[in-house]
Design goal:
This protein has two helices and 25 strands. It is mainly β and 342 residues long. It has a single domain, classed as Jelly Rolls. The two termini are 20 Å apart. The structure holds fe (ii) ion (FE2). Fe (ii) ion binds next to loops. Its EC number is 1.13.11.5.
């Protein structure tokens, strides 16, 4: 929204407790401004999975710079300070803040050694020291910086007399990274019926409670070939035990594409389907699917990919989102959820 920056993300839904390191929180951002000069941000609550829907984010982090375009995602670990600017104007998207554990690639099981998201395609920044050389020595700039931190859902700030981006070199296993979703190697049925959408998982955060369950799975339904024969092509209308949050990611980079004009997708729009709530393709899509042939066909070619955040945690939806749904209906937000006081 006009006048908002990276520190103005709004909570869409949450479960658990950051102070107990359980559960997650899902934010939506729709921003038009760079963060202030000499201002940095970090979440002390959890790792941030950033899912741009539209626009690009230039993210300066303590461990280097990440330019994250639409159809790319980024992960910034808990406590890593960063500053977000907008190289192409406004940006919209989603943040999944994970209170427990870390995001990782899913176990591939019988798939074998590769496909889905491959390790080789994740991009990690190199150090980018934001200071100057004085008499042959590296010095952090000496202006005053404001560091904004989110702790237990609340923002705090402090100042310091030097840049937080003062890392000249680093190594280790705790770092931000990005991934181009166009590199996701989609697998699917080559004959009939539908594998579970967990086959589209890009990143997962396993639960400690029970093997095979996840605090959250991040999955995408991107362009792909559909080659199933003599079977129904749409996902089944269904209920399940996971709670699902979904929304569009625009992969068409052409600014003339209708999706990039900001007219079709409303800011802050998302779908939330609580555990055991019925959901699936609408009736008109069902009728269309019944009439079409099942010859091999490239599907989801409209210019946007649907992402899914599937969590075993029952999500509480923010009051503002419930009110938007009650006021504007499905055009702005589709919510099959639990009201809460956020
Ligand atoms: Fe579902």
């Amino acid at each position: 929204m006009d006048g908002q920056d990276w520190t103005d993300a709004r909570v869409l839904a949450h479960s658990g407790d950051a102070s107990m390191k359980t559960g997650l929180k899902i934010y939506i951002f729709a921003i038009t401004k760079d963060m202030k000069n000499a201002q940095a941000f970090s979440s002390l609550d959890g790792d941030m999975l950033i899912i741009p829907q539209q626009g690009a984010l230039d993210i300066q982090t303590e461990l280097g710079n990440l330019l994250v375009r639409q159809n790319e995602i980024a992960v910034i670990p808990r406590g890593i300070r960063h500053r977000v600017t907008l190289p192409t104007g406004q940006a919209r998207g989603y943040i999944c803040e994970l209170f427990q554990g870390h995001f990782r690639l899913p176990e591939l099981g019988p798939i074998g050694t590769c496909s889905l998201a491959n390790v080789r395609d994740f991009q990690v920044p190199v150090a980018a020291f934001d200071g100057t050389l004085q008499d042959g020595r590296a010095c952090g700039n000496n202006r005053e910086w404001q560091v904004v931190s989110r702790l237990d859902g609340h923002l705090f700030s402090c100042t310091q007399n030097h840049t937080p981006f003062d890392v000249a070199a680093w190594n280790g296993t705790y770092y931000p990274y990005k991934y181009d979703l166009a590199r996701f190697c989609v697998l699917g049925s080559a004959l009939y019926d539908h594998p579970d959408p967990s086959l589209f998982t890009v990143l997962t955060a396993p639960s400690y409670r029970e093997p095979g369950t996840g605090v959250v799975d991040f999955a995408i339904i991107p362009p792909r070939w559909n080659v199933m024969e003599n079977t129904y092509w749409l996902p089944y209308y269904h209920r399940n035990t996971m709670t699902e949050v979904s929304g569009p990611i625009i992969y068409n980079q052409d600014e003339c594409c209708v999706w990039n004009k900001g007219l079709e997708f409303q800011p802050y729009a998302a779908t939330v389907a609580s555990a055991m709530a019925c959901h699936g393709a609408p009736e008109d899509a069902h009728k269309k699917a019944e009439e079409q042939t099942t010859a091999p066909k490239k599907v989801s070619t409209e210019g946007f990919t649907v992402f899914l955040l599937e969590t075993e945690c029952p999500l509480r939806v923010a009051d503002w989102a419930i009110q938007q749904f009650e006021t504007n209906g499905v055009a702005t937000a589709t919510v099959h959820g639990t009201k809460s006081n956020l």
